């Protein structure tokens, strides 16, 4: 595509006779570019040579599509059509860029739209063997999207089946009063043991990024934003869109809602106060952030309190919408820059952790896979410094690292924020080994205990694989 004409099209081969009843379109979201189709035509064919347009009586239908970035638009056909091939022929579109705004009456790039065809497969009369549905995995698990009540029931069932190694507890409530349940899996649930590092997976920070919620088989917090998830769940996979459920009920993006400790640290470094007059780790939360009237979501307060109660060593924040692992810092040091490489003092450790996940993920290691959007993360091994992708002030990763010394990365699990339930088995298979291997890294360094002596210094041996130290200081 890319030509200024109305004859370009996107063709879908259903691979057999199919009953088409409608089309859903949505803008293909990018951090730097926003485009969507505002109107289109539809044609059908059985051989790709002869095409019949969708008509309402004798008139060819021009379907009205998206009016803005976030909301998917459903158009039902005047009558269902049985065919093998369908073409979407955009007529008008809008293209937006931060430095260049263009309103076009032709489709600039047809790739800037997500299209779902609503269809029902017919049996193939030329093939006596019906197509078998393949689940994508041999694991006998409950692969479907679970709403809040179903998630709670599932956690309860797992705990009852494994009472000696599991415990369910709540770290707080969402704005609408839904409890934020956590499952602990340990040989002695409810007890922190010296020398046994604490690990956490957090999913559902953005309620419409649901895959992590369905993949965390050994997990802690499957739904950080339960109110947002319930909104996205009611809309379903196609109609939830990029925004529905992303924010909390109050409108907070939880990944921008944690205390900005980066600026506190960098200002102190510029004033040469670190480390003797200002700490470079376990940085305290500014007093203004703790006030009752501070703009802090109850979900964020609950997670911070949770972090402070348990000495977590390693964590991962499970997101969706891309295929990449990002590591701190998430916020650019130059405040006015949207992108800037901003590594931490432990950059080698974070790069190792991100690489462990990315190199064991079945989709990320596939060099022939399609790009999710426009960024080609494969060139960098499917990992990136968060700030070098796009700045995120107040991220949970940066806060976790600076306030609690817990190493945390963000894992973008899938191109699709809300995949179909039928895709969950394959998504589980894509990520299963990565999730387990990443957890194993909590034991990959040096774990030690030491009395609370002044000026205690612990150094990692440079030759230990992997080359980092995860230490727990206990009296």
Automatic annotation (TrEMBL):
GO terms for cellular component: extracellular space. GO terms for molecular function: metallocarboxypeptidase activity; zinc ion binding. Pfam families: F5_F8_type_C (PF00754), Peptidase_M14 (PF00246). Residues 144-442 form the Peptidase M14 domain. The keyword Protease applies. Residues 1-90 form the F5/8 type C domain. The active site is at residue 412. InterPro entries: CARBOXYPEPT_ZN_2 (IPR057247), FA58C (IPR000421), Galactose-bd-like_sf (IPR008979), Peptidase_M14 (IPR000834), Peptidase_M14_domain (IPR050753). Its cofactor is Zn(2+). Keywords: Carboxypeptidase, Hydrolase, Metal-binding, Metalloprotease, Protease, Zinc. Signal peptide: none annotated. GO terms for biological process: proteolysis. The keyword Protease applies. Belongs to the peptidase M14 family. This is Carboxypeptidase X1. It comes from Naja naja.
